[in-house]
Amino acid sequence: MGKFLVVKDPLSNVDIIYLLTGDVISRPFHAVELYRENYTNTIVVPQHELNPAEELGIYPNPTEAAVKVLIQKGVNKSDIIVIDFDNGVTSTTDEAIALRRYINKTKIKNVIIVTSAFHSFRAKYIFKKVLKVTSANIIMSPAPHRKFDETNWWKFEEGLIYCTNEYLKFIHYLLF
Predict the structure, then answer these.
(1) Residues 105-114: pLDDT tens digits?
(2) Does residue 172 belong to any structural domain of this protein?
């Protein structure tokens, strides 16, 4: 069940790395690795919706936290682009729409999408659907979880939750 959820495409040089928000524990660190391996010199991050605690500065916004990780791990600030999206992205579909708008403005052709490993199948499904009106080529590069992977996820409570949630969310996307 875990192996089905993980999509890892062969990597090649691209115009941008598109870093999905929501998981600052693994995703930005993986994006830094790809940046250091010179797949591109630009990382694009969509602006995530601000919740009330984030507006007060009590809790960091996922976009802000991801950008801080990128910078602290050595990514040049000038190589990071944060793209706006109405009131901020709240879903993978929003992130795909934000990327489509960015592609239409910039005419980029090749993108590495960085997301969590178990999220990569659903993300690729959504991005292919939303980006079909563009000529962009997307490459999925899943960030590994620090405790488990597709071969041992059931041994960890967090792995059970991740796996179950992804299957439920994928069913939701198929139905709606």
Answers:
(1) 998 999 999 9
(2) no
